Amino acid sequence: QELFHAALGGVLLKVNWHLVYHNVSTRDQHSQPLSVIELSETTASPGLLIQEKQKSNSSIHPPREAGPKAPLPPMCSEPARVRDAFKYVNTAVSLLVFVIGILGNVALLKIISVNKSMRSGPNILIASLALGDLVHIVIDIPINTYRLIAEDWPFGLVMCKLVPFVQKTSVGITVLSLCALSVDRYRAVVSWNRIKGLGVSAWTALEIALIWVISLVLAVPEVLGFDMITMDYKGRHLRICLLHPMQSSPFMQLYKSVKDWWLFGFYFCMPLLWTAVFYTLMTRKMLRKNSEALTDHTKQRREVAKTVFCLVIVFALCWLPLYLSRLLKKTIYDHEDPNRCQLLSVFLILDYFGINMASLNSCINPIALYIVSKRFKKSFKACLCSWRLPLQAVRRDEAQSVLKSRMHDQATENPHQSLDSQDHTSST
């Protein structure tokens, strides 16, 4: 049976996805089982092609099955390999993403924490997104870079489970934060400032808590499914971290079988569809107010909406290559083809290109905010020029802008709504 697994991280891969191609067969008790791991793990040892007889002390012991045994697929005519030049390019790109991602996300967190006028509902969600990206950058990217070059997994079982868990959590935070920002922009346009008696601050805190809890829960299967196996290859004991092909529980067997479609549906299609629905509703609402004069407050709301839409587009462009590569593997890969290892080499390059693009999403959000939002641009300039400055000039400008916006709200909304609700839309 040929098994293909994709596991983030997600993570992202905002991405650490582990691709595993397995061809496992068992024979009777008196013969040695033959285990063919055509591509043990693209983020661990992508150039490794194991076609050796599995020793009795190997950590993989497939269950015996009654009845006639299915014939083995033909052996690969040549192993899947990655050129050294690609490894160097991948390492350089990962280093660039690591540096820019840390600087950009730390600066973004500092801007929002230092400027009181920037601590609004949408900006707090953006800060939560930046924190998730930062965790992914610090933990996943260095390990993924090492694993492309290394032949085995030297970090132990704890890190084997932690890395995909962190990656999947980071991707979940990104996806759910974008969905929450889309709802927030729609609420701002329709002046929905209170939800069931909760103030905006309380609602935003609840949103962030739910985002992190749901993201952590959805990443738990990565901890349960990932494991280390030991293979004897040319006299060496190689440790490999992967989504184990022999899952014991029915839930994990189902998760392993539908994982690719689940990831594509929930972590890619769902946020795009969600954003499309709420932005369509928001556009219709704005068109109805087309005859009204554009106030400063309305312009600010439109700028924030444009910023959120830009983040969603960046997310789609960064993650599309990886999902496209996964779907191509599922549709055109034939495990009976003796030349399939040549195809695996192509898929391996496509997959690492997709992984790099997905990782780029973790560092590109601050850049997108700098380009789209005038306020973030001013704050970024002040922050990057001097990390010690309290950003007083920027804070004065922001405070004046927020004061004008709130005065406009108090003049246009009901008094009781203005007193117990915040205008959380004017700070981006």
From TrEMBL:
Q: Which SUPFAM superfamilies match?
A: Family A G protein-coupled receptor-like (SSF81321)
Q: Keywords on this record?
A: Cell membrane, Disulfide bond, G-protein coupled receptor, Lipoprotein, Membrane, Palmitate, Receptor, Transducer, Transmembrane, Transmembrane helix
Start and end residues of each G-protein coupled receptors family 1 profile domain: 104-369
**Stretches that traverse the bilayer:** 92-112, 124-145, 165-183, 195-220, 261-282, 303-324, 344-372
UniProt key word Lipoprotein: yes
Q: Where is the composition biased (Polar residues)?
A: 412-428
Q: Name one GO biological process term.
A: developmental pigmentation
Indicate how the chain sits in the lipid bilayer: Multi-pass membrane protein
Q: Where in the cell is it found?
A: Cell membrane
Assigned protein family: Belongs to the G-protein coupled receptor 1 family.
Q: What is this protein called?
A: Endothelin receptor type B
